[in-house]
Please model this.
Amino acid sequence: MSAQKRITVERNIKQDVDTGKYYVTFYHGKDNAGKAIRKTKTFDHLADARIALKEHELAFEKGDAIPPSRLDLNKAIENHLEVLSLKSEESTLYGYKGIAKHIKTHKLGKRAIQDIKPTDVQAYLAYLQKEKELSSNTALKHYNFLNAVFNLLEQQEQINRNPVKRVVAPKKQAHKPEYLTVEETQELLKKVQGDRMEVPFALGLYTGMRRGELCGLQWEHVDFKANTIRVTNNRINVGAKIVEKKPKSTTSERTIHMVPELRKILLLENEIQENNSELLKTEYKNEGYVICHNDGQAVRPNYLSEMFKRWFGKPENRGLHAITPHELRHSFVALSIAAKVPLYEISKALGHGDIGITSRVYAHMLDGSHKGVTEGMASLLRK
Model:
């Protein structure tokens, strides 16, 4: 819109004669070359224009006014990721970079950070769920990431306020994990006997280890004399790359008792791997992992999930309850609860930081009637 179509209403406020909108010019002092720094903003009502101008002038007098910036969101995210790279793990950073790619292809990423409004962020979240058909849980991750980016910009005084704080966050959807019943577990263990999949199935069911912990387990951490398994390594996929690291937390590093059934399966697997090594000689890649290919090469975590899918997809296995490696962990919990194992002990075996995490994640598996508690208390009173 040309300047000739705007009339001066009062100092630093003009009105467009066609649209009726009000244009406020905010003065931010002078740059290094002595040129005045100004920013213009549009308002629908004169009262709002006056209030905004007054607030700016007071902030400018106090030294709190933020000079205009043309830094766009994509560049701000790039700077944010640089900060995160100093303190975040590679796998976490990989997830953030995935979110950044989504934003980069959307018009929101090209907007100047000071021009982004709550409605812009809300529209982006709606786009993720409606057009990209992402789940509300995934959209919530984008919301949290954007909130962190704008929080940092606010702390650095590059923006006045974080627009994400005034956005309605996507609702988190509760996920009830799949797990095997006692009968389904018995059927699975019987069906998988002597199969190459027996080792990962048995390890997951009898220990409750995470997928990365299963793939990271090495023979040096299996003690057949003490009948224990030490969980000290987590092997995960970060895109196409494999990352070896410590388990999720200090409590995740733990020692698990090895039951006789699992001990028997692992002893046989150890013997098979030794035979394969003798047979293949120099072609055998002895990497020391319990779950490995016939040539001794470690199984990639993503490929382990694919192995599960293929095995359950075989015609002879299609009648079984198909699960993923992580759902073996859920099954371990369900079976432990069915066996009346105290939740505290289950939590320790899982490597959770506290019993509250276990209770929240697996609340749906617990008996909501609390029959054991009430009957126990009543029986005490009967005595």
